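Course assignment 3, question 2. Fill in each field.
Student: A.L.
Task: Predict the tertiary structure for the chain below.
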Amino acid sequence: MSSIVLNFDNSWRAGLGLEYQVDPRWLLRIGVAYDNTPVQDAFRTPRLPDADRRWGAIGARFQPNDNWSFDVGYAHLWISEVPSNLAPPGPVPGALRGHYDSSSDIVAVQASFQF
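Answer field:
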């Protein structure tokens, strides 16, 4: 059995969101956020190629009556390009060197019924 030391740093997240009630049935949402990664460059692995992330999100709620509501949301994450310089444990020669560059899109849909 092998183990991998990840040596996480402390991290933080900041975000700001706004909601606008168009009328009693429609609610619009918008938001931004920034996530600081706990992963240090020297310990980044292909299993966890995490990096700082910037978020942009929009969404809406439609509530046709007191019982039903429908929500939809979309977020795009811009993930910073980061290096990897992982030295192997023990006497094995070589190292994992490279860069990770990624982004992500998240779509969510929800229907709620209250009784």
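Instructor remarks: Residues 13-113 form one domain. The chain has one domain: 13-113.
Grade: pending
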